[in-house]
Amino acid sequence: MTPKFTPLKDHDTPIKVLFTGYLCTVGIGYLFALIQILFTHGMADGQFGLSVDDIVYSYYGNRSGTVLEKQLNGAMKVNAPDQERFKIMEWVRDGADLSDYKADGIDKIIEARCVMCHNKDASGLPDFTTFEGLVPYTKQDTGATFESLTRVSHIHLFGISFIFMFVGLIFSFSETTTTQYKCIAIGMPYAFLIADIMSWWLTKIDPVFAWLVIFAGMGMAISFIFMWVTSILEMWFYQTVFINGFGSRYLEWRDSPEASIPDRFMALLKVLIAEFKPVGKYILGKWTECVWPVIKAKFKK
Ligand code: HEC
User: Fold this and answer.
1) How many A from CA of 118 to the centre of ligand 1?
2) Considering only CA atoms, which residue is closest to atom 35 of ligand 1?
3) Is any ligand 1 atom within 6 A of the Cβ of residue 76?
4) Could you tell me if the CB of 115 is within 6 A of ligand 1?
5) Cα–Cα distance measured from residue 269 to residue 266, given in angstroms and rounded to the nearest whole number
6) CA 279: distance to chain centroid?
7) Ligand 1 pocket, residue 117 CB under 6 Å
8) Span from the CA of 40 to the centroid of ligand 1 (angstroms)
9) Can you tell me the mean pLDDT for 104-119?
10) Residue 69 — very low, low, confident or very high, per pLDDT cuts 50/70/90?
11) How many Å apart are CA 144 and CA 204, to the nearest integer?
């Protein structure tokens, strides 16, 4: 079967350099995006690492209480006697009104117990010298606002669809996968992108959908990695991987109409094991030869 397009391996070197430069830059961009996610959403539940709780807190919010109550039961507990802390919390539960703020004497408590640290001059700390400074901490945490979701949604839809436009375009010149699988790989990220953005909005309404955020994000990453790796391998390593290397059998089955899927799978497994046996032996050899003695020596000390 001769393809109706120029296969990646047959493109001119300048085009290959262009494609590779783009793929590498976008790949690094993807890594930074993942790090960014770890640092923003990953910290939402107070612990490092991404979890379902993080997603829920980021989009749905932590609706079990206000920040003020949580702090008064946590880090700020030592700063006021129980009686005064309960008074503040009661006021927050009753709606945190300005009239009650004065009437219940909350302003006096805040002034006496909190303002020495929480004032205008304390950089990074919320300023409690005015009522306005305190109000945001008496509200329920409802996660991402609709404004921020709208902003991030349209940026993501426009930006990421462009990334997958070019990654998909480059990948469409590949020839190791059948047309059917190519269509799936190229279309998948768009379906997942829309599912991802929709799942943010759904999570804002109901925390159950946090799973969909993770699922869609992973789907997008998997299709990205698949297209990225296939394109790079075909451009620069076609001969070594697909003609002489472990992909050679794959090319045979791809073009053979008889091979059933289990057949193909078993044969691929055999080839992979045969390929990785020497690698495993080499690593094991190096380990016992170089690394293990060093570790042993460390423990002896
Ligand atoms: C000894 C200084 C000090 C006093 C007194 C103090 N705080 Fe704080 N407060 C801090 C510091 C430092 C932080 C930030 C670090 C942290 O979150 O643990 C903070 C954080 C907070 C936060 C969280 C702010 C945010 O951005 O999430 C709230 C709410 C708060 N304090 C309320 C109070 C209240 C109410 C009082 C009075 C009962 C009080 N604090 C008294 C030092 C103080």
Assistant:
1) 7
2) 114
3) yes
4) no
5) 5
6) 31
7) yes
8) 21
9) 92
10) confident
11) 7
In this structure, how many other beta carbons lie within 10 angstroms of the beta carbon of residue 33?
12
- What confidence tier does 32 reach under pLDDT thresholds 50, 70, 90? very high
Q: Which amino acid is at 259?
A: A
How far is Cα 72 from Cα 21, in angstroms, rounded to an integer? 53
Q: What amino acid occupies position 1?
A: M
Q: Which one-letter amino acid corresponds to residue 255? A: D
The stretch 139-145 carries a mean pLDDT of 79
Closest residue CA from atom 22 of ligand 1: 71
Alpha-carbon gap, residue 247 to 14, rounded angstroms: 26
Residue showing tokens 């697909």: 242
Two structure tokens written together for 59: 């989009």
Q: Does residue 192's CB lie within 6 angstroms of at least one atom of ligand 1?
A: no
183 Cβ inside 6 Å of ligand 1: no
How many angstroms is it from 207 CA to the middle of ligand 1? 29
Q: What are 166-214's pLDDT values in tens digits?
A: 999 999 999 887 788 889 999 999 999 999 999 999 998 888 898 999 8
- Write down the pLDDT at residue 1: 52
* Sequence letter at residue 205: I
**Most informative mutation of 43, 71, 130 for ligand 1 (most atoms within 8 A of CB):** 71
d(CA 288, CA 171): 41
* Average pLDDT score over residue span 117-127: 86
Residue 262 reports pLDDT greater than 80: no
Taking a C-beta distance cutoff of 8 angstroms, is the pair 128, 119 a contact?
yes
Q: Who's near 279: CB < 8 A, 6+ residues apart?
A: none
The token pair that represents 152 in the structure block: 């991030």
Q: Taking residues 10-24, what's their average pLDDT?
A: 95
Nearest atom within ligand 1 for CA of residue 84: 38
